[in-house]
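I'll show a sample.
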Amino acid sequence: NLQLRGITLEDAPEILSTLESLGITTLQSGMDNVRNVAGSPIAGIDPQEVYDTRAMCQALTEYVTQGYDGNPAISNLPRKFNICVVGSADMFEHPHINDIALVPAKSNDNGKLGFHVEVGGFLSPIRCADAIPLDAFVDEGDAAALCHAILSTFRDYGVRGPRTKTRLMWCIDEMGYDNFREEVARRMPGGNLPRASEATTLLPDAIAHHPIDPIDESHHHSTRRSVLGIHDQKQDGLQWAGLCVPTGSLEPGDMTALANIADKFGSGEVRLTVDQNVIIPNIPKEKMDAFLEEPIVQKFTPFPGMLVAGLVSCTGARWCPQAQIHTKSNALELAQRLDEQLSFPEGTNEVRMHWSGCPNVCGQSQVGDVGFIGTSVKVKGQDAVEGVNLLEGGRIGQAPAEAQLVDKKVPLGDELEQKVKAILMEKYGAVEK
């Protein structure tokens, strides 16, 4: 999604109406309801995709927003709710941390496309949980009905107590898995929910092709393709450019410049990724050299340093009153400094550093190879300074894992830099340049 900051009250009505005219809405983008539906950032252009997620994401968005009028039936949930549709084995959508993940599959009976279903994934200050299989297969045409069955069950039975214990997984725990599935099935058209065994997944086993050594996991971060860089599309003669937007920070002039190059070199389309970067698709190969010379492409290079490429950050204290530290500027400074000092093993696609300004972990710190959670640190003889709790070992994709706490109350600055540098050298094969 996009967050527009610094808007004045008098400008808000025109901005909102303009966004709506472009098919963009702020409806249900916050509070206790369904957030924006996530799909593959390279849907429809990816030579390795198994499912084009665009139409399904749009259909689910229309169900959630009801044509921008809102859907009252699902607007008062116990807590926020995330849905994604998976497009490839790379799982760019991070299905394991979504409340509902639709994973493409094919019916064993009639060959119809549909989805295996996973539920309950989330991150929070006190508990993180990977999504679990619902033991279900749903036809494409019933996907919205399935989402409604799960959402209405959550609405009616979900825990409404302390906000740290009100996500969908807590509801599943409270009801019991079997009771939860039975209630969801009862709410489906016809009162039936086929079992997962009635369909075969369309995802190739990415882990089988890129096995993770259980003893030496130093290269686990290399198993997912990177969308950054220049890549051939499935359409002959066309390429996409994955541009690195460090920490996802764009100024108004940047937005205009990105739109201009999308018109000039591509099809006028600009895509966003969950990792806070930008994709410009449908660029003819013969135009790519000129595209790379554009000033905005020089600024948001498709060929960033390893650590800048994998950088994700929440809004931070500049704009968020809950943040305890300034995330974006400190995250970028640290990544740039370490990129200057370190090289990584050949074949490493990315090393992901995720920053959150507070324990709400909006920067998804627990899925980073290295994670940072903002806190204040008392320093002897000084006022409290900005610091982080440091995590390591998060994984995404088909073998997800939660990053674990390795150090507490580390002040920002040289001490943090040295600790992160040591982790990167010990765990990720980095060496001094």
Observations:
- Residues 143-157 form the longest helix (15 residues).
- The first strand starts at residue 83 and ends at 85.
- The chain has a mean pLDDT of 93.
- The radius of gyration is 22 Å.
